[in-house]
# Entry
Amino acid sequence: MYPRQFDYVAPSSLDEALGALGDGSKVMAGGMSLIPLMKTRLFSPAVVVDIGRIPGLDSVTDEGDYISVPALVRHGTTASDPLIATHAGALATAASLTGDVQVRNRGTTCGSLAHSDVAADQPAAVIALGGTMIARSSSGTREIQASEFCVDALTSALEPDEILVEIQLPKMGPGEASAYDKLGRRGGRSDYAVAGAAAWVKKGNGTVEDARVGLTGVGTKPTLALGVVNAIVGTDGSDEAVKAAAEHALEGVTVLEDLYGSEEYKTHLAKVFVARALKQAIAAT
Ligand SMILES: Cc1cc2nc3c(=O)[nH]c(=O)nc-3n(C[C@H](O)[C@H](O)[C@H](O)COP(=O)(O)OP(=O)(O)OC[C@H]3O[C@@H](n4cnc5c(N)ncnc54)[C@H](O)[C@@H]3O)c2cc1C
# Structure
């Protein structure tokens, strides 16, 4: 299918891109999700603002307290970057399991968050890692916590005139580690998640002092699994404690049946992957 007719602009600076945005426009980064949606006419923007040629947005940087993942960092870079490996292991794994080589060479981590697919990998990791999303419009900049960023299926907290310019990820301190695991559609791992989970934990003196768990694939959006967090913090992080905490994986989450699994199967998988991610993160502290 062909998309409806649209105007195309390829600005060479962020300011120029922000000036071109407004009602009826869409940002294009890697185009890996936008173009299929335009071809199937689920999205029919009047103007596509292609930010892909703006220089200086494609490298992960160390900003002292946090690492910065700007708008044009591709999944392949996220999967292999040494700063991400050190401070955001869950995100490195999620990016390495996103799609195939072509998708990882074109698609961007910020695009994956902005796209807010119900079964996307990287939003769950960024939620678990406590990321801060930096949204810019021509009238200013605002911060959105990752746990508040995905608001519904294919709907993020961004306004039509905003660009997600950067994801900020706090650096790992002593006793902190993270992990991500999923079951991909079609039985493999490099595909959208039937169910998946990311975990970040902070352990000290034999106790889980803090934790965050991000879930994907099971509800209307990647989400923070608050029930698990409340159940694992304060425990010794043993296999028994993890198993008990995973039972709370779906508190506050409406599990949706889809082509890839019934409600019952997804409920089971969510608990399995929450337990796996938590165990891997705890083992790595
Ligand atoms: C064959 C195939 C397999 C895939 N498999 C997986 C998978 O296993 N797991 C997975 O998680 N994803 C998968 N994807 C999706 C892929 O990861 C996309 O690349 C990603 O979701 C979007 O990134 P993008 O840079 O291509 O964004 P685009 O397609 O350019 O944009 C997607 C949406 O986000 C918006 N957007 C993009 N960047 C910004 C920004 N900086 N600021 C504001 N809005 C922005 C666009 O306006 C659009 O609405 C797959 C895609 C394909 C085609």
Residues 183 and 193 are 6 Å apart (CA to CA).
